[in-house]
Amino acid sequence: MALIIASSQVINITTNKDYVFQVHRYFLERDSEFFRDMFTCPPTSGLADGQDEDSAILLPDVTVHELECLITFLYEGVYGLAFTLQDWTALLSISSRFLFDKVRDRAVREIAEHDPPLGPVERLVLAIKHDIPQWVQPAYTDICVREEPLTEEEADKLGMSMVVRLARMREELLRERSQTAPSVPNRPRFARNTTTDCGCRSCRQERLASDEADEDTKRVTKIVEEVMAMQ
Hints:
Layout: E1 2-5, E2 10-15, E3 19-24, H1 25-31, H2 33-40, E4 57-58, H3 64-76, H4 85-97, H5 101-112, H6 120-130, H7 133-145, H8 152-158, H9 160-179, H10 201-229
Antiparallel strand pairs: 1-2, 1-4, 2-3
Helix pairs in contact: 1-2, 3-4, 4-5, 6-7, 7-9, 7-10, 9-10
Protein name: BTB domain-containing protein
Pfam family, one: BTB
Domain BTB: 7-83
């Protein structure tokens, strides 16, 4: 991927010299610290970087889809965008690498609020790759408490170190749960409904089950925090 400055106003962006996109320099300078710094540097010789195809600015490992999403956002971001989850993920990738901070913030928010939500493994991978710390612990927790084990594909995405960390978390959780198992087996869990808690046997069971669920959530959170602190 390379970027070409066609004039003082218009930027030409190309992917491996096969696709060329024109973008106004204004947007790049306004939204990206990376490009602001680049454009303040005087050219070493001849034309400034990006003024023509021969001086194209190389953007390593950028895909056509990522660039299309970025350009669409720069020109149409103030309007309603029909972006898919895949589009927001592509925008997160390119905005993180080239320091489009406000664009990145929007992508993070849109992914976090997307319905249906991104799966916990995908969230964890993105959080580590693009430095989104607020996603890490919830993603670890969701993976720990789900019944299904990691698939081979998920393990490949996460890498060995994270797989080992998750295995340690799940083992600790199983051990904690076995030590704090309720005295009454197979007690059903209910969502607590305080508006109808009249003190009858059913309401007491519901309240107890809700309290146990709260304790289990605290237990999982504590285990995740402890194992994360070991890294």
